[in-house]
Amino acid sequence: MRSLVEAEAATPFELSGEGPFRLVLWRRRTDAVLLALTHHIATDAASQWLLWRDLLDAYRAYAGGGEPEWAPLAVPYDHFVESERALLDSSRGQRQAEFWREQCEGSGPAELLTDRPRPATSSFTGASLVRRLPDELAERLKRAAAEQEISQFALALGSLQALVNRWSGQTDFLIACPASVRRSAAKEVIGYFVNPVLIRAVLDRRTPIGEVTAAANERLRQATARATYPYPLVARAAAADGPLYRISMTMVTTDAFGTELGGAVAGVPIDVAGVTTTYLEIPHLEGQCDIAIEVTRDVHGLTLALRYDTALFEKATAESLFGQFIRIMTAAGDTPEVPLSRLPLTDAAEKRSLLAMGGGAGVAS
């Protein structure tokens, strides 16, 4: 079944014919598998959950002999397109363009040392690692972010910035954060309401990790206030020779669509008109960046996904990166006063292995 799903997911869309949406249903003797495929040109993460919510509502209604009671949309997707065009023609749009030009000037993309040379052309192939944080740790990070008066996402982003600094030595770099530009009038509309915003980090290894996450929180605030300016125009204004980012981070929350779907994300089976239904996520968007971290916050806690370009990184390297990111994020929550240079990158087992390689297995540390 996994091979069938992966083969279907790898089949390109014929946008001029079938459009950006495809449903495939496999019937088996004792159950069935429904695969929903959507092209990113027409959907974002919130749209995916709107789609599943409406599909489940429709199934329940038809199973009961009725019709789904969907309210009319307040605005069509065309309304968003028109508002974006109006922004570009306004003085506000010009001010946003200047902000992004200044944000990028003199900086460049965050980069990590890779296992293999970068190919001339990306194949956009990758893999994913997914880890659900222990509930106690997720709650601790949530509490720490509140105490430091920053968002949970800023805590995670600052930790990623610290990881880049420790791995590469870069002190001035850009990381992209896909930001939602969906407004309340369009909360029920399926469409692409996402714009990557570039978050600049200017770091010093003597800086406490708490100051790094606080700075990330402020830069996120400034960037999301100007997220409506289209990213392709940001790249054009920056006149960069290459891409402005190679690493991205995003956060998805499912609580807006109720406890049922929020629980489904965490793997809790739900009842749909007498049918026990379990949500399974198929790895996606792999290889679009060198490294992409996605944080999903559901009603039960936090799940992290690290997607990496397999042309650049071995799985062991990605696993090491993932573990170090979680350790730094934990330290950022528990000990914000620790400087970047003193953040822990290895666990006890890795430290023993390194000491043994250097002939220092018996050295206390």
UniProtKB/TrEMBL annotation:
GO cellular component, one term: enterobactin synthetase complex
Listed GO biological process terms: amino acid activation for nonribosomal peptide biosynthetic process; enterobactin biosynthetic process; lipid biosynthetic process
InterPro entries assigned: CAT-like_dom_sf, Condensation_dom
SUPFAM superfamilies noted in UniProt: CoA-dependent acyltransferases
Domain Condensation: 3-355
Entry-linked Pfam families: Condensation (PF00668)
One example GO MF annotation: 2,3-dihydroxybenzoate-serine ligase activity
Name of the featured protein: Condensation domain-containing protein
Source organism phylogeny: Bacteria, Bacillati, Actinomycetota, Actinomycetes, Kitasatosporales
